[in-house]
Amino acid sequence: MELKKAMSVSIHSNVLFSLAFLSAGLLSMNAMAEEYFTIKDGELLRPTGYREWVYVGTPVTPNDMNNGKAAFPEHHNVYIDPKSWAHWKETGEFRDGTIIMKELVSVGSKVAVSGNGYFQGEYIGLEATIKSKKHNPNEPGNWAYYSFSTPDHSSITKVAKPFPAASCNACHQSAAADDFVFTQYYPVLRAGKGKGEAASGGFTSTLK
């Protein structure tokens, strides 16, 4: 009788342990799937630590070169999360779960000891782009776009709702080189596409 009871307790314990292990695994998988961003009730919580992600470039379309009416006159410092960068350099594709952060920086001084140019001034905004079948099942390419910038560009919000698809995706769909992303303007992404270890820099002598 005691033996049967002990066996029953042992089996019960093993089942509980297996269930706990399975639950932990599922939670871990969910955490990994969104380890660089969290979306709650349709709003993106402002990511942190993105300046330590992979930097891919800084395009700028200043007012001076666009009749004083540039749509995006500031510098855009752009970063991609490390997991998506690893996937990009191996496959040349953006994985489901990719997040790209864009810091907006004003055009500051136009004169430096090196000569005239467009130099970065102050931070004036923060934006994000996310590719997710789970959160954006009906958006073109499963991409959605967010802005944490306040209207006066003096601060950033803690959460952001996605823009209507038509306000961003149409341009990305028609002009972006890779999967709604303007990789043609980001040399790190352009040079690293599907290049494996060589994508990390310093492994080849050619600059083309």
Question: What does this protein structure show overall?
Answer:
The protein contains four helices and ten strands. By secondary structure, the chain is of the alpha+beta class. It has a single domain (38-196), classed as Cytochrome P460 (Chalcone isomerase, 3-Layer(bba) Sandwich). The strands form three sheets. The protein has a five-stranded antiparallel β-sheet. Strands 1-2-10 form a three-stranded antiparallel β-sheet, with no helix packed on it. It is globular and about 50 Å long. The relative contact order is 0.13.
SSE map:
Elements: H1 2-33, E1 39-40, E2 43-45, E3 54-57, E4 75-80, H2 82-91, E5 99-107, E6 111-112, E7 115-116, E8 120-131, E9 143-147, E10 159-160, H3 165-175, H4 187-192
Antiparallel strand pairs: 1-2, 2-10, 3-4, 4-5, 5-8, 6-7, 8-9
Number of strands: 10
Q: What overall form do the CA principal axes indicate?
A: globular
Could you tell me how far the N terminus lies from the C terminus, measured between alpha carbons in angstroms?
78 Å
CATH topology: the name is: Chalcone isomerase
Could you tell me the radius of gyration in angstroms? Answer: 23 Å
If helices are DSSP runs of H or I spanning 4 or more residues, what is the number of helices? 4
- CATH class category label: Alpha Beta
Spatial order of strands in the largest sheet? 3-4-5-8-9
Fraction of residues in helix: 25-40%
- In quaternary terms, these chains amount to single chain
Structural class: alpha+beta
Provide the β-strand percentage band.
15-25%
| Overall pLDDT score | 87
Domain tally: 1
Order of helices and strands: HEEEEHEEEEEEHH
The profile of the biggest β sheet is: 5 strands, antiparallel
What's the CATH architecture? 3-Layer(bba) Sandwich
Classified in CATH, the superfamily is: Cytochrome P460
Low-confidence blocks of residues: 3-32
